[in-house]
Structure formats: structure tokens, C-alpha cells
């Protein structure tokens, strides 16, 4: 299948922005035949969606800690890699231990886990609705969206002034904007609900206005500008988010500028000719961060299709997105050959799965499809991530049951 150069996939599927409507339509058609390659992921999706039907919608106002503003409608999270200072009586100021999660940053006291629970829950129920046409899933998705973004008593204020706070140091930081990286799941869910009647036109417009206001805050606040200046995955996710929200809100000019900026500053600036992402390779979990950053770059490329910017194939001085992809693939299928030290003792190569699936779509290269098969044959997930996903009540991302297999089926 040739890549779309705009959002015309709505003619053969839902008008989603980050996913591809024609690929979702293909999955839906295939599921009628119950193929062995998709059924484990599909059955797990429905199992999780059914469980979500009984859960109360997450709300930013449910956190235990009140932000410095005094308003629980303001999102607040704690920096995950910062810990109490062992050399001071009160533990302040916190000190950094890169790659090691402080458990207090991942509980219900603040909004970090709650944000991811909301996003992934919305993705789960909205996909379940699309694949089954079961109105219960549409209604639950609408409830989740309404509670977080619309209902006055529970809605989040469209800012991240108190994201990834460091006790004793900062009330909030630009780096906290990484917390909202999965809001694309919400915007795509709204598109998946189109025609269901679960959200009114006024409610859809309210969500669009929320996303636009949030993007405007990112573009104009000191915290947002600080994140814009990041020269690693944080800068990539910044541009990815701006493009996503503005595409959803209908501001194509701002979305196009974000995509072009990401191509010039993030992809051309962060990837070497040999495909190395040096800013990510410096981390204590380098494979994770290389895959993490590349996934954001691929989302930018998807948005580029819709604003006339070819991110997939553009190369500057011999460098481009595909260089980084091709550098990681051999290590994904043969993790023992990964030459960098990993904090957890092994490279989290299962994170390459969505990259390979997206690459197979973008480039039509059978080598990527073959690598998907190889990766599925040796699924390996870090225990820390299994624990995290269990804590928020959602399945950990194993390759064999990954929702990515449903979103990006190999053609």
C-alpha cells in the first residue's frame, strides 16, 4: 500500500490522526476470519476493555497532593528518577538516580500514573468499540473523555505547570511535558467514536478547544519553551505533541511548522549518519530511549503525511529517520549483540515492535516484516515495566499480545 500524503484514509476507515484508518479497517475485516496472527491481541483487547467497563473514570482532581496553585484541576507529577537526599534530615533537596524509578512518583498521590491510565484506557475501549460496534465501549470511552476534559467538576486545566516536580528544587519543569505524550490516544479515540452518538458535536468541539489551548500554553509558556529547547527525546515529543493537537484542532499551519521543525531540529540534529542517537545512548537504558525517541519521530512522520511534509524519506547530508531505524533493527532481533551497558542488564528490545510495524507500512520493505516475526519469537519484557503496567490495571506490552499488532497489521 502506498503511503497517504494527507488524511484521506478516512474514505476507507476512521479519520484518525496518529493511527491509519485504512489499517484499522483492514484489521476489522480480517478479524471476521479470526486469523491466528491477530486473535491473541484481539482477545486480550476485549478482555481488558470489558474490565474497564466496571471502572470509575479517572480524574485529575482525585490526586492526594494539592499543587502549589491550590487547584486540584492543575495536573501535578513528581520526577520519576529523583529520590530523597540521603545526606539531609528531611531528604531535601531530592537527588537524581537516572533510570531508577522512585515508587512515590508512580502512585495515586499525583497524576502521572493516572494520566497514563486514562490515555491507555481510552485507547483500549475506543478500539474495542471500533472493532466490535458494541455501544457499551463507545459510552465508556465518552465517559472517560468527558470526565478528564469536559465536566467542570473534574476537568484538567490545559496546562502542565506542575509536571515532574522535584521536591526541594522545582515546582514544575519543562521535562514534565513528557507526561502528556500519549494524549494522541485521546484525539484518535474521538475520531473512532464518530457516528456512535456517544459524544455530542459540542463535546467534540470542547475537546478540540482543550487540545488547542494546551498547545498554545506549550508554545507560549516559559515551561513549554524550556521543553522546546531540549535536544533529546523531550524536544522530539514536544514537536510531536504540538503537531498532533493542532491537527486535531484544525490548525494545519501550526501543525506543519511543528513537523518541519521536528525534521530539521530533531531528526536531522539527533541522528548520525550511522543511525546513532547519541543523546539517548548516554542514558542508563540506552536501547529504551533510542526506541522511545524514534517512536516519536515516526509519529511526526505520520503527521507529515497529512500536511505535505515527507519525513519518512527525507535525508539531510545522508542522515534521516531510516538511518536510526536500520541501526536498531539488528540489535532488536539479536539483543546479545547490543554494545551498550544497560541498567537492567538487558536491552528492552521488545520496544522495537511498533517501530518495525510502522516501518513495514511506510517503506513496504519485507525485511521489517521479517524482523517482526523474529521479535515475536523471543518476547522479553523488563520486570519493572510489567509491575508498572499491572499497577495501573492494564496489560504489560508483550509483543505477542500487543495492541500494535492490531493497529499496524503486516499486509
What can you see in these coordinates?
With 411 residues, the chain is mostly helical. It folds into two domains: 13-229, Chondroitin AC/alginate lyase (Glycosyltransferase); 231-395, Glycosyltransferase. The protein has 16 helices and four strands. Helix 8 (233-249) runs parallel beside helix 11.
Keywords:
Glycosyltransferase, two-stranded parallel sheet, two-stranded antiparallel sheet, 4 strands, 16 helices, 411 residues, 2 domains, mainly alpha
In spatial order, strands of the major sheet run 1-4
Mean of pLDDT? 89
Q: Gap between N and C termini, in Å?
A: 8 Å
Proportion of strand residues: under 5%
CATH topology-level name of the largest domain: Glycosyltransferase
Biggest sheet features: 2 strands, parallel
Task: Give me the secondary-structure category.
Answer: mainly alpha
Please give a quick description of this structure.
This protein is mainly α.
Q: Which secondary structure elements does this structure contain, and how are they paired or packed?
A:
Elements: H1 21-31, H2 39-52, E1 76-78, E2 82-83, E3 95-96, H3 112-132, H4 135-149, E4 162-165, H5 184-192, H6 201-220, H7 222-228, H8 233-249, H9 252-270, H10 278-281, H11 286-307, H12 321-333, H13 353-363, H14 366-376, H15 383-391, H16 404-407
Parallel strand pairs: 1-4
Antiparallel strand pairs: 2-3
Amino acid at each position: 500500500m502506498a503511503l497517504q500524503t494527507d488524511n484521506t484514509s478516512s474514505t476507507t476507515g476512521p479519520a484518525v490522526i496518529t493511527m491509519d484508518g485504512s489499517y484499522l479497517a483492514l484489521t476489522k475485516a480480517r478479524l471476521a476470519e479470526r486469523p491466528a496472527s491477530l486473535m491473541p491481541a484481539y482477545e486480550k483487547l476485549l478482555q481488558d476493555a470489558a474490565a474497564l467497563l466496571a471502572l470509575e473514570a479517572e480524574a485529575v482532581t482525585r490526586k492526594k497532593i494539592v499543587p502549589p496553585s491550590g487547584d486540584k484541576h492543575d495536573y501535578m507529577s513528581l520526577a520519576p528518577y529523583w529520590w530523597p537526599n540521603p545526606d539531609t534530615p528531611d531528604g531535601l533537596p531530592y537527588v537524581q538516580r537516572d533510570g531508577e524509578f522512585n515508587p512515590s512518583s508512580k502512585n495515586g498521590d499525583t497524576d502521572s500514573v493516572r494520566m497514563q491510565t486514562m490515555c491507555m484506557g481510552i485507547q483500549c475501549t475506543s478500539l474495542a468499540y471500533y472493532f466490535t460496534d458494541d455501544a457499551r465501549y463507545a459510552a465508556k470511552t465518552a465517559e472517560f473523555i468527558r470526565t478528564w476534559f469536559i465536566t467542570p467538576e473534574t476537568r484538567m486545566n490545559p496546562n502542565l505547570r506542575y509536571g515532574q516536580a522535584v521536591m526541594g528544587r522545582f515546582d514544575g519543569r519543562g521535562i514534565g511535558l513528557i507526561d502528556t505524550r500519549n494524549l494522541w490516544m485521546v484525539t484518535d479515540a474521538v475520531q473512532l467514536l464518530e457516528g456512535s452518538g456517544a459524544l455530542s458535536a459540542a463535546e467534540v468541539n470542547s475537546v478540540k478547544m482543550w487540545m488547542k489551548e494546551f498547545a498554545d500554553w506549550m508554545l507560549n509558556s516559559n515551561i513549554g519553551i524550556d521543553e522546546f529547547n531540549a535536544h533529546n527525546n523531550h524536544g522530539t515529543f514536544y514537536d510531536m505533541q504540538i503537531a498532533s493537537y493542532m491537527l486535531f484542532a484544525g490548525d494545519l499551519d501550526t501543525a506543519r511548522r511543528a513537523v518541519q521543525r521536528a525534521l530539521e531540529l530533531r531528526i536531522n540534529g539527533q541522528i548520525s549518519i550511522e543511525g546513532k542517537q547519541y543523546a539517548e545512548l548516554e542514558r542508563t537504558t540506552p536501547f529504551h530511549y533510542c526506541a522511545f525517541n524514534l517512536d516519536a519521530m515516526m509519529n511526526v512522520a505520520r503527521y507529515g503525511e497529512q500536511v505535505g511534509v515527507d519525513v519518512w524519506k527525507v535525508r539531510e547530508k545522508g542522515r534521516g529517520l531510516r538511518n536510526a531505524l536500520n541501526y536498531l533493527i539488528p540489535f532488536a532481533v539479536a539483543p546479545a549483540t547490543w554494545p551498550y551497558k544497560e541498567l537492567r542488564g538487558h536491552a528492552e528490545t521488545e520496544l522495537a515492535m511498533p517501530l518495525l510495524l510502522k516501518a513495514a507500512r511506510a517503506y513496504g520493505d519485507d525485511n521489517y516484516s521479517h524482523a517482526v516475526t523474529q521479535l515475536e519469537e523471543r518476547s522479553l519484557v523488563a520486570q519493572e515495566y510489567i509491575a508498572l503496567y499491572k499497577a495501573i490495571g492494564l496489560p504489560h506490552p508483550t509483543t505477542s499480545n500487543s495492541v500494535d499488532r492490531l493497529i499496524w497489521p503486516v499486509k
